[in-house]
Amino acid sequence: MKLIDAALLSVMLAGSAMASPLPESAPIPGHIAPGTTLVVGDPQTRVALTLSGELERLPFKVEWANISGGPQTIEAFRAKALDIGSVADIPPIHAQWTGLDVKIVAAKFRLDPVGHPIYVIATAPGSGIEKLEDLKGKKVAFSPGQAQGALVLRLLKKLNLAHNDVQLVELPSVGDAYVNALASKLVDVAPIAEANKQRFVQNYARDGAKALPHGLRDDPAYLYVVKSSLEDANKAAAVRAYVQAWGRATRWIEAHPDEWIKGYYVKDQGLKPDAGRFLVESNGKPDVPLEWGGAIERQQETIDLLAAELRKPVLKAEALFDRRFEKVAGAAYLGE
Predict the structure, then answer these.
(1) Phi, psi angles (nearest 5°) of residue 119
(2) How far apart are CA 72 and CA 87, in angstroms?
(3) What's the order of all strands across the beta sheet hosting 84-87?
(4) How much is the pLDDT for 16?
């Protein structure tokens, strides 16, 4: 029998261990092997890391995918072309329902979510809608796999309206799709981003269009990761480093509003400085929690609502969150 050198055996065993999937119960390793690469779909953080100088200090290689949101990130996960995506609360749920195993690794919210909403309820010119209670019998844009779709369902529940009290028009919210659908009167009502409110009102208010506050919480912002990336020990360690950078980037944006307006809203997004300042103010202050109990509870409420309305199986919200990352973003945001 041929003897194997002890040093060679050690290398072989190390290689075997590296090849084994990292269990969900295992701690995230502290070491990131040279050459480890993450593909990240988080365009806003890319700009923040660049402006703050943080990007060049990342302890792994990052390749940026110019995508975010549910439909694009889920498609990229399936194509094995993405490790981390930036989304709201619905895409992780929708991904699980479509057989894609994902985990939430970072969460942030707004300190005053009702006073600083992400969306407003916009009405089409000539729709005759003066207040939310006028929605009965109207055509409402609806995207079941996106945050806007969940907001519509929450709004109907708040107004004590059933599905058959309105006409839900299934329409993905991509780019200006909802604004265009309102302008063309394809729908009477649609949730649009607060960021688009000024332009929408300026263009269509004279014809009776409105942007109405909904009074609901719509503020979750998550980073989620396809589970296979977390089974790779080096990628899992790199994900933790990225979540830390994400937390610090959130703090940097808050502390440097003028640089953020100039570098992101004006230079990257092509907006005028006044529009950028409006958006900074409308975003309010961030909340990057050190514990996820409240987030999980709210996520469960959302799952229960969607499951009942869309006739989907009820998921356990707890299982969507990888709690090994629970304190990572919050601690980085606080400078710990």
Answers:
(1) -125, 155
(2) 10
(3) 61-64, 37-41, 84-87, 221-226, 102-110, 286-287
(4) 37
The angle subtended at Cα 70 by Cα 67 and Cα 71, nearest 5°, is: 80
Mention every residue, 6+ apart, whose C-beta is less than 8 A from residue 96: 102, 315, 320
The pTM of this model reads 0.90
H/E element holding 223? strand 221-226
Q: What is the pLDDT of residue 209?
A: 94
pLDDT digits (tens, 9 = 90+) for 92-114: 999 999 999 999 999 999 999 99
State CA 295 to chain mean position distance: 13
Domains of the chain: 23-110+219-333 (3.40.190.10), 119-212 (3.40.190.10)
Helix (H) or strand (E) holding 257: helix 257-260
CA distance 190 to 179: 8
Helical pair 194-204 and 273-283, crossing angle rounded to 10 deg: 130
Q: Side by side, which strands form the sheet with 210-212?
A: 167-170, 139-142, 189-193, 119-123, 210-212
- C-alpha distance from residue 193 to each of 55, 155, 199, 282 (Å): 28, 16, 11, 11
| DSSP string across 181-209 | HHHTTS-SEEEEEHHHHHHHHHHHGGGT-
Q: Which structure tokens are listed for 281? A: 């103010």
Radius of gyration from C-alpha coordinates of the chain: 22
Q: How far apart are alpha carbons 146 and 176 in whole angstroms?
A: 15
Distance CA 99, CA 119 (A): 29
Grouping H, G, I as helix, E, B as strand and the rest as coil, residue 63 is strand
Residue matched to tokens 């307006």: 261
- List of the chain residues with pLDDT < 50: 1-18
Q: What angle do CA 167, 169, 173 make, to 5 degrees?
A: 140
Q: Indicate the length of the chain as a whole number.
A: 336
DSSP 132-188: GGGGTT-EEEE-TTSHHHHHHHHHHHHTT--GGGSEEEE----TTHHHHHHHTTS-S
What residues does 141 pair with on adjacent strands? 169
